[in-house]
Amino acid sequence: MSKKTLIVGLTGGIGSGKTAASDYFKTLGICIVDADIVARDVVETGSETLLNIEQHFGPSVILDDGSLNRAWLRQKIFENPEERHWLESVTHPAIRARIVSLLEQASSPYSILVSPLLFESGQDELTDRTLLIDVPESVQLERTAKRDNNSTEQVDAIIKAQMPRRERQQRADDIILNDTTLEQLQQKCLEYHQYYLKSANDQE
Ligand code: ATP
Predict the structure, then answer these.
(1) pLDDT at 4
(2) What is the DSSP letter of 109?
(3) Which residues have C-beta within 8 Å of that of residue 142, sequence separation ≥ 6?
(4) Angle at 95 between CA 41 and CA 24, to 5 degrees
(5) Ligand 1 centroid to 157 CA: how many Å?
(6) DSSP tally for the chain: helices H, then strands E
(7) Are 134 and 165 in contact (CB under 8 A)?
(8) 15: CA distance to ligand 1 center in Å?
(9) Is 143 in the pocket of ligand 1 (CB under 6 A)?
(10) How many A from CA of 24 to the centre of ligand 1?
(11) Is the pLDDT assigned to residue 20 strictly greater than 80?
């Protein structure tokens, strides 16, 4: 990747505050690349990846409007790990290529890649530093259940399926503990913003 600027990888568990943090960095003029949005975009109607998926799984994987039948596909790969591997072998490189391209187009002094699976997917290899938005599980449960109107049992099951908090803390370069107010979160983001600006400047 022909890298021009410093890239920060921002991650955290479900409901940790990744969006709240990245929205704030955006207001500071920082270009944000969201891995979840990219993952959706690479299988958009008419894309090469979607065509590839249709050729492999057949017409059932496409809805009448030409878009991906996510529910059908989810069930298929849930039942068959080999199909999951095949799907990932097609989607992961496409996602990575699109992320690299978007990061290369970023025009702010540094840019941020937001990814819930930053470490799990190896996307941290694309970044210079990693920033973890960290919260205790009890806060994750409370905020996510409230936001999504889900039961705490559903959220708890998702938390258990994700990388353990301790492991994320060990892997991250920088950590923001987001267990108080949004104002506090923004204040801590601002401090890191100044630090990243300086690092980006020193890197030139
Ligand atoms: P997901 O992984 O599910 O996309 P996320 O990490 O992007 O979640 P957010 O959506 O930013 O998390 O935050 C989860 C919820 O908690 C949102 O409703 C958000 O407004 C709220 N929230 C985040 N930080 C705080 C805070 N410091 N104080 C109060 N509410 C907060």
Answers:
(1) 67
(2) S
(3) 152
(4) 70
(5) 18
(6) 9, 5
(7) yes
(8) 5
(9) yes
(10) 12
(11) yes
Ligand 1 pocket test, pick from 149, 162, 182, 184 with the greatest ligand atom count within 8 Å of Cβ, gives: 182
> Looking at ligand 1, which residue's alpha carbon is closest to its atom 9?
17
Round to whole Å and give the CA distance between 110 and 38. Answer: 19
pLDDT averaged over every residue in the chain: 94
Q: 11 CA to middle of ligand 1, Å?
A: 12
Give, using CA atoms, the residue closest to atom 30 of ligand 1: 182
Question: 1-30+110-204, what's its fold?
Answer: Rossmann fold (3.40.50)
pLDDT at 203: 79
Radius of gyration over every alpha carbon of the chain, rounded to an integer in angstroms: 18
pTM: 0.92
Nearest CA to ligand 1 atom 22: 17
Which pLDDT tens digit goes with each residue over 129-170?
Answer: 999 999 999 999 999 988 988 888 888 888 888 999 999 999
- Mutation to probe ligand 1, out of 135, 147, 149, 181 (largest number of atoms < 8 A from CB): 147
pLDDT at 182 over 70: yes
Q: Which atom of ligand 1 is nearest to the CA of 23?
A: 11
- pLDDT for res 154: 87
| CA distances for 93 relative to 88, 99, 179, 202, angstroms | 8, 10, 35, 31
Summarize pLDDT for 39-97 with one digit per residue, the tens: 999 999 999 999 999 999 999 999 999 999 999 999 999 899 999 999 999 999 999 99
